[in-house]
Design goal:
This protein has helices at about 35-40, 40-45, 110-115, 120-125, 145-155, 160-180, 190-205, 220-230, 250-270, 285-300, 310-320, 330-340, 345-355, 365-380, 385-395, 400-410, 450-460, 480-495, and strands spanning about 50-55, 60-65, 75-85, 95-100, 125-130, 210-215, 235-240, 355-360, 360-365, 435-445, 465-470, 500-504. The protein has about 500 residues and is α/β, with parallel strands linked by helices. It has one domain: Alpha/Beta hydrolase fold, catalytic domain (Rossmann fold), CATH 3.40.50. The protein starts with about 35 loop residues before the first helix and ends with a strand.
Length: about 500
């Protein structure tokens, strides 16, 4: 599991996804359906879709899917879809896009992607976005009220004493019980395995023989598991910011902990070259400044003039979120400068954006609930207090910014008490597809470290790996003409780039 805010693809989205855990921890393998259950799906795969005009130049509809694939007779839920129609005379099919998560809504994302892809891609493909089950307009799950969400997000993410640790774990338990209290009808059924099945019903209802998918971060797991479960239905598939399905939750967090520490060091080195860097000196002086600020905030929050003073939890979130792309680094430098002058509001604004916070106890989406509801259902149980404390100590031992490493471990606590964790163990994904798949890895990606892209490429025999020699989470649309050109050409031709291609 992870700490922070996972992506609703950060380069293009306006909102930001969950703040108290960030990339993804899912390991569920899609189980095959019985012949009887598979036969029952015909009424879903053959359903007509009625599209209506909605905002942003899109069309919107609802896709009906079974709530429980093991028992389709148990009832249906609706999945919100949107599309931007192809602009030219030649139609290749739908390009389904997913921005990340879990917990990230994707209907608005269709418009954003339509404006980013090459004009020829927009000409030939309908760009289709969707809110996965449990998210936004697709049978949304609630695990925390607004006040509970605020208490969780503002609680000390690096508990020092036994009392603080027990208080954190008590709040973590409440997230699980809240899912069953507020959303008992949907919470047990929003696993990634079920979302993968939803994708195949979506493909069929859209009229596509193959699924063309552009998936970022968590979307790469959706794609990889789809290729495993439905190998003959794989079309053109781009997996950018890859997650390694063979890792468990704590391994995911440990990898991310190292990734974000590396990003912070690179940010610190860059800061020394900027006139508005608030910490004069060399890279180590900047890192010392980070640590001093976080230590002070643990004792003395800074005034903000808003709902509450800036505390350490919010500053930690602001650090994490700002590492998602170098485009955020200037904003963080400015906010740190304000904090050094006694004003915590700019850092708080970054944290609030990350959490999609729009008022004192008000949030613009259910992303904070949905993240845990999906992640913990997908993942094996994470350790209890003793194990989380041991990992926090180990990960922070040589970390340049130790508090962030500790927060990465304690951020796993909700999945230590989930009502129904994934019972198995993570395994590498396998697929018999003959379709060429493109895996994209960014060398200094903090949220999905580069070795995960290498691992996913090795697990998918027909995949090609493209490397972006840069910073930030995911690469397509992030400013590399080389990456964009390779992906656009693949979407248009179906021919994968040369394996091992490196782009700057």
């Amino acid at each position: 599991m992870t700490y922070g805010a996972e992506v609703m693809h950060q380069h293009w989205r306006r909102r930001i996804v969950p703040l108290a855990t960030l990339a993804t921890c899912l390991t569920a393998v899609v189980a095959g359906l019985s012949p009887a259950a598979a036969a029952d799906l015909a009424r879903y795969t053959e359903q007509p879709l009625t599209w209506t005009t909605c905002s942003g130049g899109r069309q919107c509809t609802k896709l009906i899917v079974p709530k429980d694939y093991a028992n389709p007779a148990a009832g249906d839920i609706q999945i919100a879809l949107s599309r931007v129609r192809h602009t030219g005379p030649d139609f290749t099919g739908s390009l389904v896009v997913n921005p990340g998560g879990p917990g990230g809504a994707g209907t608005d994302f269709a418009s954003l992607v339509a404006g980013i892809v090459a004009p020829q891609v927009a000409s030939q493909f309908d760009i289709v976005g969707f809110d996965p089950r449990g998210v936004a307009a697709s049978a949304p799950v609630t695990c925390m009220t607004g006040a509970q969400t605020t208490r969780w997000l503002l609680f000390d993410p690096t508990p020092d004493s036994l009392s603080e640790q027990n208080s954190l774990l008590r709040l973590a338990r409440e997230i699980s019980s809240g899912c069953l209290r507020y959303s008992p009808q949907i919470a047990p059924f929003i696993s990634t395995a079920n979302t993968v099945r939803d994708l195949d019903i979506m493909r069929a209802a859209l009229g596509d023989e193959k699924l063309n998918l552009l998936g970022f971060s968590y979307g790469t797991t959706l794609g990889a598991l789809y290729a495993q479960e439905f190998p003959s239905h794989v079309g053109r598939m781009v997996l950018d910011g890859a997650v390694d399905p063979s890792l468990n939750g704590m391994q995911i967090s440990q990898g991310q902990s190292a990734g974000f520490q590396g990003a912070l060091v690179r940010f610190a080195a860059d800061c020394t070259k900027r006139s508005n860097c608030p910490y004069p000196g060399d890279k180590q002086d900047v890192l010392d400044g980070f640590n001093s600020l976080l230590a002070n905030l643990d004792q003395r929050p800074l005034p903000t003039g808003t709902y509450e003073p800036l505390n350490q939890a919010q500053a930690v979130t602001a650090f994490f979120w700002s590492m998602y792309t170098p485009k955020f680094w200037s904003t963080l430098r400015s906010a740190l400068g304000q904090a050094e002058r006694g004003n915590g509001e700019p850092l708080q604004q970054i944290a609030d954006q990350s959490a999609d916070r729009i008022g004192k106890n008000r949030y613009g989406s259910n992303q904070n609930s949905a993240f845990y509801a999906v992640s913990c259902l997908d993942a094996p149980q994470t350790p209890g207090r003793t194990g989380l404390a041991a990992a926090a100590k180990s990960w922070s031992k040589n970390a340049p910014v130790p508090e962030l490493a500790r927060a990465m471990s304690w951020g796993n606590s909700p999945c230590s008490f989930w009502f129904n964790n994934f019972a198995g163990q993570p395994e590498p994904v396998t697929s018999t597809t003959s379709a060429p798949i493109v895996v994209v890895g960014t060398r200094f990606d903090p949220a999905t470290p580069y070795p995960w892209a290498v691992a996913l490429h090795e697990q998918l025999p027909t995949s090609s790996l493209i490397t972006f020699e840069g910073d930030g989470h995911t690469a397509y649309g992030a400013g590399s003409p080389c990456i964009d050109r390779e992906i656009d050409n693949y979407l248009l031709s179906g021919v994968a780039p040369t394996n091992g291609k490196v782009c700057n």
